[in-house]
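INFO batch 0412 | record 1 of 1 | parsing
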Amino acid sequence: MSEWVRFYICAAFAAFGVAAFIFAAVGVCRLDYVLLSLHASAIADTIGISSLAVAAAVYFGLDLVSLKLLCCAGLTLFTSPVSTHLLAELEFLTGKTFGAHTRRIGK
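INFO prediction complete | emitting C-alpha cells
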C-alpha cells in the first residue's frame, strides 16, 4: 500500500473519530436530561474510540500493535453499548424526574 494512501486513510478515520468526540461533547453540554446526555456520550465512546483505533492500526500496518488496537476497538464495540444500557436502566429505575420529561402514548 502506498504511503500517501495509508496517510489519507489514517487521516480520514482520525478526523471522523475526533469529529465524533466533538459532537458528543457539544451534545453532553447542550442536552439537559441525563438519558439524552448518556446517549451522546455513548455514541462518542463507541464510534470515536473505534475509528481512532482503526486509524492507528492502518498507520502501523500489519503488526502486533495493529492486532492489539483492533482487539481494543472490538472490545469497545461490544462492551460500550451494554454498559450504557445498564446505566440508562439504572437512571430509569431510580430517577425521580423521569416522568417530567416523557409522556405515555395512548393515555
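INFO post-check: The chain has one domain: 3-97.
INFO record closed
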